[in-house]
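Most newcomers find our protein records easier to grasp once they have seen one. Read left to right, the backbone structure tokens trace the chain's path through space. Once this layout is familiar, the rest of the handout is easier to follow. The record below serves as our worked example for the rest of this section:


***
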Amino acid sequence: MRKYDQRKEVNMTEREAILGFMMGERMKSSLIAATQMAMVIEGLAEHEKAGADRVFSTFLRALYQDIGLAHKVFPQEEWAEIRRELDSGLVMVDSNVSHAAVDNLARAISRATTVSNRAMTFLNDKGLL
């Protein structure tokens, strides 16, 4: 696990931190919802899984695009790591084993939490939270 890089804090503006916190929390909640979707799909009847996997894949691809916006408003290396986890998860979903994407999603949630925490710490240190 990497230590908090103090240099990132120095280059961060209040606006970036607010947007970063917002995007990190948004991504985290979306990834939690995705994890729940994967678990629901696992319990579906076989004839229902193909359609559910297509919808789930579309949802994950939308999250993937949101990461591009998140990176623009709050440049952090974790966004690329979240994208890598989503890539791996999409391979599982597209291979019709959605439940296997849960580990990737859990790691992506952890990265999103790191982004949010970094922004929240900055805002707290500035007395804005």
